[in-house]
Amino acid sequence: xxFLYARxxxxxxxxxxxxxxxxxxxxxxxxxxxxxxxxxxxLKKMQESGFDPSDNNNPLGASSLNPEDLKNMGLPFxxxxxxxxxEQMNTMFSINATPxxxxxxxxxxxxxxxxxxxxxxxxSDPSIAExxxxxxxxxxxxxxxxxxxxxxxxxxxxxxxxxxxxxxLDASFNSWREMVEPVAAEVTQAMVLPGTDNVPEELSQxxxxxxxLNNLGSTFFGIQMAQALASLAKEVYSSTxxxxxxxxxxxxxxxxxxxxxxxxxxxxxxxxxxxxxVRESALIRLxxxxxxxxxxxxxLVSRYAxxxxxxxxxxxxxxSQVNMHDPEAVQEAFEGGMFNPQRTEDQELAVERLEAxxxxxxxxxxxxxxxxxxxxxxxxxxxxxxxxxxxxxxxxEQVFETLVGLEIRPRMVREATAFWRDYDEKHGYEARxxxxxxxxxxxxxxxxxxxxxxxxxVSEQLSFDDVDFDSELKKLLDGGYDDNK
Length: 485
Hints:
Elements: H1 2-12, H2 38-48, H3 67-72, H4 79-95, H5 109-121, H6 130-147, E1 160-162, H7 165-190, H8 201-207, H9 216-233, E2 251-253, H10 255-265, H11 269-289, H12 292-305, H13 312-321, H14 327-333, H15 345-372, H16 379-392, H17 395-404, H18 410-427, H19 429-434, H20 445-449, H21 451-478
Parallel strand pairs: 1-2
């Protein structure tokens, strides 16, 4: 949304007019009646009032908006709307890259984190009470007892923590940065504002020191990321809620989240906490035993990012057509649609693998949690809530779609859950969990749709492993090879 204001401001300097405004007495020319351009006057006044986009603490300075100035520009003086615009502009400049930087230098990550923290603070985010911290620790202990009988993966022995939303952001931010940095690099390069050489002197003087125009891509991506993380902080229940650990070496539950969930589905908060503790502990066990999982996820995101193309035509069309008098229309114009839907062949391969891997992780933890919580009366109801959450777009789906442009299909998660259930019934949980030892032993996306294909492939591999490999290894160790043959 911040890009829209920048674009509208930029277009305004090239003759952009609000011809639909009921207050515009000079439609089509943007003239104040005495030959002066009202937008130029407006920009000069902002400069004179202390506007400094390079000042991350207060880029808008002491700027004030005079109703007459807005009227001359064809804008209605709606205090609430203008406050929103000011807040968006403040966000844009606080997240903007360091003054004098180039597009290659990328996103101002400190600004992104600070902005996300401010957005979280604007919502309710109380500190975690001591009794809730103890409740989380007790739930984690019981969860481990239940899990010991349904998985071969050993306990992680990491003390469980209880986080607020802000603490979740602080603990997880480095992982988010690691994951989206390849995407941000592509976006930054693709979204350099065209035609900046023709920017009028007033706008150039106003924004020049901030590097805003040259760093538009990184600024826009930073705004989008801050908004996504602040929104996600309201929905996550644990440190692994998107499918893998966001704070390696730590594990945590978010008590304020499970209390809200319990109220929504009318289930005792203690049962919700126990179910979430089981999921959290199961995922930590899975990833600590199989560290290649997280590495593969990061590598696949990076591989996908290399083929990303930003849909600049859509962004520019939205900027030129949006009704600036309607704040909701402004918001809707820039929700999604940032990435070009056309994928390269390599991207398709990366997407297929990433989607299957995330689905297998979620399917496994869903099935294992069901097994471990059979003595929890409301467990089926809680599990159904998580399934519905995925269909409606849970944290994992949201973050990959918003920040990476990747859509994860809920249907594949259902197929993965069914796969783990079927394999467990046929071979037992030890054989089931041993499939995680290497990527090659897991089913592909196509094999999730047809278990028979997977069984045929694995049976062939196991036959070779059990007979041919062992016998050949014995020959080698016994010195039974004849080099002359």
